[in-house]
Amino acid sequence: MIAMIQLDNVKKTFNLGRPNEFVALQGVNLSVEANKITVFKGPSGSGKTTLLSLVGCMSRPTSGRIHLLDREITSLPERFLTEIRRKTFGFIFQQYNLIQGVTALENVMVPAYPSGEKFSTMKKRAMDLLDIFNISSKADSQVERLSGGEMQRVAIARALMNNPQVVIADEPTAHLDTPMSKEFMEIMGRLKESSKTVLIASHDPVVSESPLVDCVWNLRDGKIEGEAG
Amino acid sequence: MSGWIDKQKNILDFTFSSILRRKGKNIALLLVYTLIVFLLASVMFLTYSIKEEASTILKDSPDMIVQKISAGRHDPIPLSYMEKIKEIRGISSVKGRLWGYYYDPITGANYTFMVPEKFPHEPGEIEIGQGVSRVRATFPGDALDFRTWDGKVINLEVKKVFSAESELVSSDLILISEEDFRLLFGGSGDRVTDLVLRVRNPKEIPTIAVKIAELLPDTRIILREEILRTYDAVFSWRGGILILILAGAVLAFIILSWDKASGLSQEERKEIGILKAIGWETSDVILMKFWEGMAISLSAFLAGIILAYIHVFFASSSLFEPVLKGWAVLYPQFKLVPFIDASQVVALFFLTVVPYTVATLIPSWRAATVDPDSVMRA
């Protein structure tokens, strides 16, 4: 099976050459299969967020290569990386990173604004997404008035607005209780069924031990320790 | 093409939403910006309109005015001087003119009394300008009292309130018969206030002026072009004074807007990071910030210009009247004919809208080129 994402000896160092130089990832070799749920597990500071940001074209590795569907993306110009990020990846951030003062509906629509689609088309698609996650009744509510679970569902809807192939979630259950964490994993299961690839960074056992997960990688001190279970 | 237009519309939509999210800051900026544009535009409109009105008035004025000077002051001129001047070749007509100023203690205004070439009424009757009518609440059929040079009071009936092409001159004007003029101001019948000349060939005006000066050394000659230049200089000077006074406010505004525009708040920086992370390009972010800067600065500019127009042409520039009309603070109220110099408006646009818009782009560009990875770590 062709790997969706391939990392070859990827290294990431922050503040290179400075006194506070820090190696977040040390020579990571990794393959992520398509249409699977892959979890990166590890304690805080193990490099999970850095790994996701590299995979999702949010930053560049210090060395090594990253392939996306056999296409090497490491050395692409920023403009192309942004386009790949918009069309291929959907992000669910740890803090959700929804835009305050803006309604749930508009937050979901924002990723599609630069695409040049008609406003009415974007709006309909955003409403459909909110509907899928049973939150369409809050479409006109400002996000700061939503509960944690509602905000997360808005964040998921936003991540899916551009119909990405890959959904990346960074510690998605950090602010959720167990029932809501399970509900989140069910949503991820549905995404997998609709042929999306899901990458999750989490140290929550509700996530890593979920039967829906296909592959769990252990990270420690910037290194892959091995595939777990 | 339609995709491009839709993209602009979408980003504009988000821009307005962004402006409304930071209402406090943007409203404060808008108000200050509007005030500055209003003040500068008001000065520009008023100065330019008065100069244009002066030019309109002087269009039909005589080529030359000859006044007698005594100890440096203007004195009534003997009619005999007219005969001497008539002998100079090139002069098509010489006429004596009677006019003078009258201070009205009731209103604190100065009126200009003038005896026209052909006065259509009888002695005891006058025509008044709209300004006089306004300040004295006097209309045709009413009468006005004036104190003569020797302390007596004469009563003159208003036959007509005239409207002239320009209220700048006519507003305080009172047309009177020669008989009443001399009753009011005194003086002998063989003298007039000044002499007005028309010249056949305008190119000969300077030459004729020199000849008159040699012939009549106790006179001064005022050319029409000199009056225009004087008006220009006076109002440009006064306009300049006002601009200088406002310079402090303008400078404070520049510092304020630069500070506001060039420094993004933590919230704005984070918002830009989120947009980059979810797929907005740097150019999309900069476009949004450009529209934001333009929306505020253009709105303030238009509001300021409109308010300035209303202030100058409908409210008689009440804020600036004392400075720009100088001693004529006693002038009756008048309405200027709207004259706007488009080049000044364009210059104001480039001095206000463009710098502010540019100032918003620099910090936005800096924030937009930041690695979106930092958003995930926020």
Structure commentary:
The complex is a heterodimer of chains A (229) and B (378). Chain A has 229 residues and is an alpha/beta fold. Chain A has a single domain (3-228), classed as Rossmann fold, CATH 3.40.50.300. Chain A has helices spanning 48-55, 78-88, 104-109, 119-132, 148-159, 178-193, 205-208, and strands at residues 3-14, 22-33, 37-41, 63-68, 71-72, 89-92, 166-170, 197-201, 215-220, 223-228. A six-stranded mixed β-sheet of chain A has the order 6-7-8-3-9-10, with helices on both faces. Chain A has a four-stranded antiparallel β-sheet with strand order 2-1-4-5, with helices on one face. The longest helix of chain A has 16 residues, at 178-193. The mean pLDDT of chain A is 90. Chain B is of the alpha+beta class and 378 residues long. Chain B has two domains: 2-57 and 230-376, no CATH class; 77-192, Barwin-like endoglucanases (Beta Barrel). Chain B contains 13 helices and twelve strands. Chain B has helices at 2-21, 23-58, 80-86, 130-136, 167-170, 178-185, 205-215, 224-262, 266-277, 282-313, 321-325, 342-368, 373-376, and strands at 64-70, 73-75, 77-78, 91-104, 109-115, 125-129, 143-147, 153-162, 173-175, 191-192, 194-199, 219-223. In chain B, strands 1, 2, 4, 5, 6, 7, 8, 9, 11 and 12 form a ten-stranded mixed β-sheet that branches. In chain B, strands 3-10 form a two-stranded antiparallel sheet. In chain B, strand 4 (91-104) and strand 5 (109-115) form a beta hairpin. In chain B, helix 1 crosses helix 10, helix 2 (23-58) packs antiparallel against helix 12 (342-368) and helix 8 (224-262) packs parallel to helix 12. The mean pLDDT of chain B is 83.
